[in-house]
């Protein structure tokens, strides 16, 4: 019956039915000699019916086997098993169905292989990264921990299934304190030569509809120490340059003053002494600025009325209001520190824009606090300067210390806020100081 697979199923069924009709008719003609017509026809049908049923079963048997095979492979696909295929020698609609089914299996196999390779690559990267990674479920149990996390918290043992609170109980106190504070941050383990600096990062997300937490613990000792050395080198260069600029003329003028005294030309001494005093005061202000930046205290917040506060600030440096200010508007911040930050921003604006009427302040209500914009119509900043302007000791001014914007940024971040710089349309710069409620 294998040859039947090569014929269309409809043709096979019609051929078998016609054959059995012919056999039944011939048998009925033979029985008409002895039986009435109705009896002869009934006898012919009865005699051919079993063979017709048997022939139909034989004809449909390959198709039934094919359908069972297709159902079995579909069940295997549902179980992520793509190692099965279906063979069918026939053509027509069933042949097209089998070909499409096998093509689907090949596609799923290729996708499964690609997915396995990606999972293997991802697992290799996660396991071998120096960053300790832990995934916690809603019940505080460790779902996954890479090799770095095992070394940091479990002495190399597997951590999956353990509660994170149990692991913290055996961890260094500094690590436990960092987790207790919540959020991201730096902490130090050990002291002296064995001191290690780590950064903790915590992120929450939903996995299969349940809230999970991803913890990332990165050792930053080497990187921070390298950055610290570079920063100190830059500080020393800036301070050396500024000291040279002040001490060299002071030494020269002191020598010149001594010569003038020796010659009796005292009428020129006041000018030399004024220059010495000017350079000394400049140096004093420079050192005071560095000390202020290094010893910025924690902000002491208090309620402040914006209208009166900005009016008092205007008595020290000139600016105009870019928009009306509600007299009842108030906020909570350290007035002395924010005043220092705004003074730095306003003085920078005056230095870049010679017209004081073009320096303005705009106060806006932000989503989570207040935004103070200091605006000017100077030349603005190019991309390189915008990217580095907030860094300590970075300055494009010949005699600049690079501390004005950096100090303003420190003050803003100490309040939980931020500073942003943006070039204005039509020229100029907008420096935004954002202070949360």
UniProtKB/TrEMBL annotation:
Native source species: Luteimonas terrae
InterPro entries named among the record's database cross-references: HATPase_C_sf, HATPase_dom, His_kinase_dom, HisK_dim/P_sf, PAS-like_dom_sf, Sig_transdc_His_kin-like_C
Signal peptide range: none
Origin: domain of life: Bacteria
SMART domains: HATPase_c (SM00387)
PANTHER family: HISTIDINE KINASE, SENSOR HISTIDINE KINASE
Name of the protein this chain belongs to: histidine kinase
Gene Ontology molecular functions: phosphorelay sensor kinase activity
Alphabetized Gene3D superfamilies for the sequence: 1.10.287.130, Histidine kinase-like ATPase, C-terminal domain, PAS domain
